[in-house]
Amino acid sequence: MAVPTYEELMLPLLKLLSDKNTYTNKQCNEILAKQCNLTEEEKRQTLPSKKSPIFYNRVNWAKTYMKKAGLVEAPKRGEVRITDLGQQLLNENPTDLKSKDLERYDSFIEFTNKSNKNNSTINSVIDIEENKTPEESLEDAFLKLKISLADELLEKIHTCSFDFFERLVIDLLIKMGYGGSREEAGQATKKTGDGGIDGIINEDRLGLDSIYIQAKRWKDTVVGRPEIQKFSGALDTPGATKGIFITTSTFTKEAKEYAKNINNKKIVLIDGSQLAKFMIDFNVGVSLETVYEIKKIDSDYFIED
User: Fold this and answer.
1) In sequence order, which ranges of the chain are alpha helices (DSSP H)?
2) Which residue ranges does the record assign to the Restriction system protein Mrr-like N-terminal domain (predicted)?
3) What pLDDT score was predicted for residue 136?
4) Which of 46-60, 102-116, 125-139, 219-233 is most confident?
5) Are 90 and 15 in contact (CB under 8 A)?
6) What is the average pLDDT across 10-24?
7) What per-residue confidence (pLDDT) applies to 38?
8) Is 34 helix (H, G, I), strand (E, B) or coil?
9) Angle separating helix axes 106-118 and 54-69, nearest 10 degrees
10) Which residues contact residue 179 at a Cβ distance below 8 angstroms, ignoring those fewer than 6 apart?
C-alpha cells in the first residue's frame, strides 16, 4: 500500500495511545508501520532531500498537530501519551480524523493563526488540499522551482552563441573536478561544423588520464544510436576508453542502450535535463537568491549538570 498521509495516521496514532501508556517515537513508528502493512521499501522511502523517511516524518507531524490541539502530550523528549481531551475524542468513536476536525480546539486555532501571521506568503502551515506535511510541501516547492530554473537554463543556452556554449561546457567540467585549470581545459577543445564541440579534457589536475568530449547544442533533434556509434568509433583511433557525450536535447532509448553495453570503454551520456541539473548543483550560470534555514531543538544545550 502507499505510505499513509499524516491525516490518515492521526486517528490510528490516537487509538494506539488509548491505553494511556507512554510510548517512544520509535515504538509508535514501528507499531503504526506494522498496522499499515508497510514493506521495508515503503518504510525506507525518503523525502527528496534524502534526509528523512517519509513515513516517520508523517507520523511526527500527526503527533505534532494533535499535540497542538491538546489531544496528546510529550512528558519527555521523544515520548508521547494521550491526554484526557484525546480520550474524550476517542469516546465519540470517530471514523477518521482530519486537520479540519482539529479546528474545534482553541489551542490548534491559535497555533495555525500564529503560523499564518508569521508568514504572510503561506496561507496555512498545513497543506490541507494536498495533505502534505510542511517538509513535504517545502521540498515539493523547492523541486518545482528547480525544475523551472532548469527549463529556463536550457532556453537561455539555446539563445547563446556557440562560443558561449563551449565556455559553458568547460566551466561545468572544471567545477565538477575535471580539466585542471580553465586555461588547460580550454586549450583542449576545438570547434566542429555541426553545432557542437569536440575536445579532450584531463580527468584530474595531473593529467593521468584523458576524457574525450562531444557536445551538441541541439534543441529539437534527438541524439540517436548512430551519433553514439560514431563517437565510440572516434575513441578507437587514440585508444581512448572514456568519453562524455553532452546534448541540450535528449537521447533515444537505442542510444542509451548502446552506450550502456559498449565493451572496453565507458561513455557517459548527459542530456539537457541532466546538463541543467549539473549546472544548478555546481553553480554554473546560476546565483543564490534566498536561503531558508530550518532549525530544530539542540537537545545537548538543555542538558543540566
Assistant:
1) 6-16, 25-35, 40-44, 54-69, 84-91, 106-118, 134-159, 162-175, 182-186, 225-236, 253-260, 272-281
2) 6-91
3) 80
4) 219-233
5) yes
6) 96
7) 94
8) helix
9) 120
10) 170, 173, 185, 188, 201, 202
Q: Which residues pair with 215 in a beta bridge?
A: 197, 246
Are residues 72 and 107 in contact, defined by beta-carbon separation less than 8 angstroms? no
Nearest in space to 45 (alpha carbons), one of 9, 1, 10: 1
CA 300/CA 198 separation, integer angstroms: 55
Domains of the chain, with CATH numbers?
Answer: 6-132 (1.10.10.10), 161-281 (3.40.1340.10)
Beta sheet of 23-24, edge-to-edge order: 23-24, 79-82, 72-73
Q: Edge-to-edge strands of the sheet including 242-247?
A: 189-191, 196-202, 210-216, 242-247, 266-270
The pLDDT tens digits for 231-268 are: 998 888 888 889 999 999 999 999 999 999 998 899 99
Report residue 38 as a C-alpha cell: 508497510
**Cα–Cα distance, 12 to 18 (Å, whole number):** 10
Q: What is the pTM assigned to this prediction?
A: 0.65
Q: Which three cell numbers stand for residue 140?
A: 515539493
Q: Convert the pLDDT of each residue in 85-96 to its tens digit.
A: 999 999 999 999
Q: pLDDT tens digits, residue range 21-67?
A: 999 999 999 999 999 999 999 998 988 776 788 999 899 989 989 99
Q: Are 246 and 169 in contact (CB under 8 A)?
A: yes
Report the C-alpha gap between 150 and 129 in whole angstroms. 27
Instruction: Say how many CA atoms lie within 13 Å of 263 toward its Cβ.
Output: 0
Q: Which three cell numbers stand for residue 15?
A: 487509538
Instruction: Report the alpha-carbon distance of residue 234 to residue 78 in Å, rounded.
Output: 61
Give pLDDT, residue 188: 47
Backbone angles phi, psi at 201, to 5 degrees: -135, 145
